[in-house]
Amino acid sequence: MTTAARDKHEIELTLYRGLNGTNPSAFRIDADGLSVFERPLDGYRFNLTFQAIYTGDKTPGIIAELTHPMLSGGVAEFTPEFGEGHWSIRFPGLEITESRNLLSKYAKSMLK
Fold first, then answer.
1. What is the pLDDT of residues 61-94, one digit of tens each?
2. Is the Cβ–Cβ distance between 75 and 87 less than 8 Å?
3. 47 in a structural domain
């Protein structure tokens, strides 16, 4: 996991999503959100990165804000019950189709 203290309270976090493509269908969003991890994943063509910041102790349920302007309003929740280093990304107020389209657009811009 890549973390750097921005100050005493904010922690910067890099999260990874393994992908074999960048179309909206590549982003399966479950009830908890889009699964991402604190480490790159083997066996995928791409590892899409997400930058996020959280404040406080890293405990289950803590919320980190996504920092890329394209993903404004997106959050990642620490959900270790789904696996070691697991976070769930959600976009409150967006339908699943809209979230998938946004993620696809983001992936295409980041994985040029």
1. 999 999 999 999 999 999 999 999 999 999 999 9
2. no
3. yes
Domain that holds residue 17: 3-100
What is the b/e burial string over 78-110, where b = at least 16 CB atoms within 10 angstroms of the residue's CB? Answer: bbeeeeeebbbbbbeeeeeeebbebbbebbeee
Q: Where are the beta strands (DSSP E) in 43-98?
A: 46-55, 63-66, 75-78, 86-90
Query: How many domains are contained in the chain?
Result: 1
Residues 6 or more apart in contact with residue 68 via CB below 8 angstroms = 50, 51, 106
Q: What is the DSSP letter of 105?
A: H
